[in-house]
Amino acid sequence: MLTVRREFLGNISCLDDDDESFIIAFWHNQVLALSYVFERRVCEKSTGMASKSRDGQMISDIMMSRGFSVIRGSAQRKKKDKGGAVAFIKSLKVLREANKLMCIVPDGPRGPIYEAQPGAVMLAVKSKKKLVPIGARYSAAFKLPTWDKLYIPLPFSKMTVEFGEFLEFAENSEENNEKFTEHLNKVSQLK
User: Fold this and answer.
1) Backbone angles phi, psi at 181, to 5 degrees
2) How large is the greatest C-alpha to C-alpha distance in the chain, in angstroms?
3) Which residues, other chains included, contact 190 with Cβ-Cβ below 8 Å and sequence gap of 6+?
4) pTM higher than 0.90, yes or no?
5) What angle do CA 6, 12, 16 make, to 5 degrees?
6) How far apart are CA 52 and CA 139, in angstroms?
7) Which residues, in sequence order, are CB contacts of 102 under 8 Å at separation 6+?
8) What is the per-residue pLDDT across 6-41, written as a single tens digit (0 to 9) for each?
């Protein structure tokens, strides 16, 4: 990943804001590449959310090696507690601090791909923080045959990271979740 050239588009002020905290969100298939794209100083003020699964442990290890803090937990499935409520509360605590980034993948940990679950908007509403959609594109990448089609940028390729419009939500609703999904797809150039 160290040989991948990076280009940033859009309003990246959330990376340098010393007073405000933000929620940054990107699709699950971009988590590996985006774990490596930011400078160490940005990683050290960032907290990621990862599931308690074996895959989640692998992502957690990668993120922690880059300086991220990690909260473990994900949405409830088939009435089985996956630690999502506790992770949500811990995320709110992170966002109460100044100069923090809470990184989430709204279609994880099991999809469906490119469909945001309501947790991201709910976190923005409860924390009263701005939600920043981020998309990544690659000049050359390998796509794994997983549910999320995980991207791995090839050596010496170029990754363009686009920061979307900062979104603020007053209520957690299906309409707001659809708006957020549209913005995330737009910066990812999906739709």
Assistant:
1) -60, -45
2) 45
3) 114, 135
4) yes
5) 110
6) 32
7) 21, 22, 23, 24, 46, 47, 49, 91, 94, 95, 123, 129
8) 999 999 999 998 899 999 999 999 988 888 889 999
